[in-house]
């Protein structure tokens, strides 16, 4: 199955501009805090170190006895059996609305699930398998393993019986290969094997040595545990793949077994691992041949050099220095984490986690790949937690929060490619199920981009806001880059379809005549109805109303910029005036989550969906809406007082919200709590289990603490600088309007600001109580020294 190639011309043009940039952030110096290191091998998967080239990756364990690379590919999914949309009809929708008007929310919940959700239809992203290298090294001394984020290289170094062993592993994007170099003074004797976990006791891959002397694993992704309602319906077909391992060596010999390769007396070995699937290439085996043939035309040092250069073109676009204590660099990463979990502050580790988020996005999202999923692409399971799929009620969105903020705009391309597919498929769901024009997206989906709901309960599966939330990413990409071609050819067509859906979806509330989304939920929360029922659906949740208001606003702005006027623009302008406000205050001054002041089942719920318009939305600011701004703060405080932000991604959201509150002390408190409660040894975010959105959300939160550009015509500098960050600098942060920002501060005060504008514009700089009107000229750096 070949990847859709729509917009190839646009992609290559944008890709060229990004990669060939000679702007101020094209070649930053390497960050000081870019090294994870440990003095023992990984025993658990959450201790191993991730490498990736966007499509393919591995977790490196660094074990001197049996080295283990757990292998990953972003297209490892069971097949698409061609499931239809649920049986729900516009008549069913009307019945649900009547139940809500009558106050029978429990019946509305039940009918919503029964008619509009394919219960428990799920497919999981899966592991590609494992590479094992039986080294048998003993009497280990001077052990160290590391991950260099600046070079995207994992290294292991130790002595066995006094003899030095050195290992280098990386995943090259230019050559689409995972490379492992192993050197030993005493010679290498090892068996190399590849395998893949069974699926419900059934083999999923077979391994052999082919005529070229390569170790080859052929497999197909299945899901035999069942995936349909309460009656298991095994998926026996899926993406087919082939993984090939080729070994070059110096001295000694490489022997071929039936299903293994054996190194004997080898002084230096270089392993080249390529993998391709039927998702990307009809003849994936032939693609492996081509890639290995290209490798034979070059050499290890050239591949490594090109890999590093390619990675650094992205990674070095931004850097952060928090003037950390250099003495802590003598401690391994796990010991530093232990110190933080005991309540100590470690500014170097805080900066390292910022860099790590950017590294992980580069490694799991490149133009032409699938977007980063719930685990990026690093997954050891046949059935992963939450299926390692695409959740559209915060998680996929959070994955891409840092892209524009940290000058990684080009990495949004896989997201837009995927969303374009959802928009197209969602047109059928919108019409068949709801009788609405435009496009609908569910709260969760997978590689094949189905757009039906898939949940046995209304409170976490029946969400109407996903499509609108995803549209924010199209708009923000335009806002940051100023790319009008992108607006015209990618953003506007998607916005038009989603705006059309919401325009048709809205109904009048018989209680006050306002336009509302109904049925409407607040992911993934419930409330207690006055009759005692625990329910989810309502007549216009805060999140839905905020999302729809934002979609309408962005759609009309896009139409204005593109000089578009039609029946839909006129209709939406009228609907804007009638739309029920998304921010309504309750009797205690907090923002209501639902349409009425219902009792909350979980006052400390991990989701803060009713603050969508505050963050990641931009509707609420201290300058323009001070009363609601204060209510947002009170709402967050109430959530936290009742145990909120218990999970890693939720804590990361709180860091971002704290930054938007202009409260650096609060933001840093949540930074500390993230390290203390939600961090694995390899600095993966713990939900638990591992979920990568917390890593990405953290990086975005740090950027929001240092620069904010979401208020029209304003640029806030160091808006939420915490007391602990006494001195430091940041380079290469992105800001809306095509701006790149560098900042230096000392003694908790701004020292120097430099802005690199791509376009002529005027704006107001805000630093503390100081305001400065500036006119920027394209290509001319602006400096402000205090």
Quaternary arrangement of the chains shown? single chain
The number of helical elements comes to 19
CATH superfamily of one domain: putative glycoside hydrolase family protein from bacillus halodurans
Secondary structure tally: strands: 30
CA distance, first residue to last residue: 58 Å
How much helical structure, as a percent, in the residues?
25-40%
Describe the main β-sheet briefly. 14 strands, antiparallel
Q: What would you say the CATH architecture of one domain is?
A: Distorted Sandwich
Mean pLDDT: 94
Evaluate the radius of gyration: 26 Å
Give the secondary structure arrangement, pairings included.
Blueprint: H1 8-19, E1 35-38, E2 49-52, E3 56-60, E4 66-73, H2 90-101, H3 105-116, E5 129-134, E6 140-148, E7 153-160, E8 163-172, E9 177-195, E10 205-209, E11 215-220, E12 240-250, E13 253-256, E14 261-277, H4 284-296, H5 300-315, E15 319-321, H6 333-341, H7 347-364, E16 390-391, H8 395-399, H9 401-405, H10 413-434, E17 444-445, H11 458-461, H12 466-481, H13 484-505, E18 507-508, E19 515-516, E20 527-528, E21 534-535, H14 542-561, H15 567-578, E22 599-600, H16 626-641, H17 648-660, H18 664-677, H19 693-706, E23 707-708, E24 714-717, E25 728-735, E26 739-746, E27 749-757, E28 761-767, E29 770-776, E30 782-785
Parallel strand pairs: 24-28
Antiparallel strand pairs: 1-6, 2-3, 3-4, 4-5, 5-9, 6-7, 7-8, 8-9, 9-14, 10-11, 11-12, 12-14, 13-14, 15-25, 16-17, 18-19, 20-21, 20-22, 23-24, 25-26, 26-27, 27-30, 28-29
Helix pairs in contact: 2-3, 6-18, 7-19, 10-13, 12-13, 12-14, 13-14, 14-15, 17-18, 17-19
């Amino acid at each position: 199955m070949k990847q859709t190639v729509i917009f190839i011309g646009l992609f290559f043009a944008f890709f060229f501009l990004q990669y060939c940039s000679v702007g101020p952030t094209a070649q930053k110096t390497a960050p000081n805090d870019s090294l994870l290191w440990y003095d023992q091998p990984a025993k658990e998967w959450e201790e191993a170190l991730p490498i990736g080239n966007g499509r393919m990756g591995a977790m490196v364990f660094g074990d001197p006895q049996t080295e283990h690379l757990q292998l990953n590919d972003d297209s490892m999914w069971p097949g698409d059996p061609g499931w239809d949309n649920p049986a729900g009809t516009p008549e069913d929708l009307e019945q649900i609305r009547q139940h809500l008007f009558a106050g029978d929310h429990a019946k509305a919940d039940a009918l919503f699930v029964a008619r509009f959700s394919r219960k428990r239809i799920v497919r999981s992203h899966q592991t590609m398998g494992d590479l094992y290298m039986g080294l048998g090294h003993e009497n280990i001394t001077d052990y160290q393993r590391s991950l260099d984020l600046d070079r995207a290289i994992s290294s292991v170094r130790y002595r066995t019986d006094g003899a030095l062993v050195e290992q280098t592993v990386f995943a090259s994007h230019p050559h689409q290969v995972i490379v492992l170099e192993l050197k030993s003074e005493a010679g290498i004797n090892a068996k190399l094997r590849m395998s893949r976990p069974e699926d419900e006791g059934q083999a999923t891959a077979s391994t052999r040595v082919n005529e070229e002397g390569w170790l080859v694993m052929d497999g197909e992704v299945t899901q035999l545990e069942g995936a349909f309602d309460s009656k298991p319906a095994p998926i026996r077909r899926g993406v087919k793949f082939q993984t090939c391992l080729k070994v070059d060596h110096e001295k000694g010999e490489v022997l071929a077994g039936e299903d293994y390769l054996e190194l004997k007396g080898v002084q230096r070995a270089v392993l080249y691992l390529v993998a391709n699937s039927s998702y990307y290439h009809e003849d994936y085996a032939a693609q492996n041949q081509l890639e290995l043939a290209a490798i034979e035309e070059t050499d290890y040092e050239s591949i490594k050099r090109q890999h590093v250069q390619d990675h650094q073109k992205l990674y070095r676009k931004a850097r952060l220095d928090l003037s950390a204590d250099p003495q802590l660099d003598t401690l391994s990463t796990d010991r530093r984490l232990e110190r933080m979990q005991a309540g100590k502050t470690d500014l170097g580790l805080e900066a390292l986690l910022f860099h790590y988020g950017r590294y992980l996005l580069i490694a799991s999202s490149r133009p032409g790949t699938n977007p980063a999923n719930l685990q990026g692409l690093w997954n050891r399971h046949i059935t992963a937690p939450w299926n390692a799929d695409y959740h559209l009620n915060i998680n996929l969105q959070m994955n891409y929060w840092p892209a524009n903020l940290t000058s990684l705009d080009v990495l949004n391309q896989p997201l837009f490619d995927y969303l374009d597919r959802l928009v197209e498929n969602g047109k059928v769901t919108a019409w068949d199920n709801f009788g609405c024009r435009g496009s609908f997206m569910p709260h969760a989906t997978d590689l094949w981009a189905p757009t039906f709901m898939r949940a046995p309960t209304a409170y976490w599966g029946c969400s109407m806001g996903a499509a609108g939330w995803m549209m924010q990413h199209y708009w923000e990409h335009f806002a940051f880059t100023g790319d009008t071609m992108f607006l015209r050819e990618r953003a506007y067509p998607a916005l038009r379809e989603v705006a059309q859906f919401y325009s048709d979806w809205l109904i009048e509330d018989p209680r006050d005549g306002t336009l509302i989304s109904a049925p409407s939920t607040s992911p993934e929360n419930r409330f207690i109805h006055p009759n005692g029922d625990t329910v989810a659906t309502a007549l216009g949740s805060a999140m839905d109303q905020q999302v729809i208001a934002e979609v309408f606003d962005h759609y009309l702005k896009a139409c204005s910029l593109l000089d578009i006027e039609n029946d839909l623009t006129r209709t939406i302008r009228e609907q804007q005036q009638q739309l029920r406000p998304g921010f309504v205050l309750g009797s205690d001054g907090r923002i209501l989550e639902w349409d009425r002041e219902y009792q909350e089942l979980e006052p400390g719920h991990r989701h803060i969906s009713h603050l969508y318009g505050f963050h990641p939305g931009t509707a609420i600011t201290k300058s323009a809406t001070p009363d609601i701004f204060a209510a947002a703060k009170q709402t967050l405080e109430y959530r936290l007082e009742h145990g909120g932000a218990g999970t890693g991604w939720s804590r990361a959201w709180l860091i971002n919200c704290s930054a938007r509150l202009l409260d650096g002390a609060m933001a840093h408190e949540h930074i500390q709590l993230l390290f203390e409660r939600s961090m694995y040894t390899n600095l993966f975010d713990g939900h638990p289990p591992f979920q990568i959105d917390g890593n990405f959300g953290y990086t975005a939160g740090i950027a929001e603490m240092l620069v904010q550009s979401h208020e029209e015509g304003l640029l806030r500098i160091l808006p939420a600088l915490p007391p602990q960050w006494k001195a430091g600098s940041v380079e290469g942060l992105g800001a809306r309007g095509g701006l790149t920002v560098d900042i230096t501060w000392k003694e908790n005060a701004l020292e120097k600001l430099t802005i690199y504008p791509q376009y002529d514009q005027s704006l107001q700089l805000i630093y503390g109580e100081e305001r400065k009107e500036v006119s920027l000229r394209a290509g001319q750096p602006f400096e402000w020294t205090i």
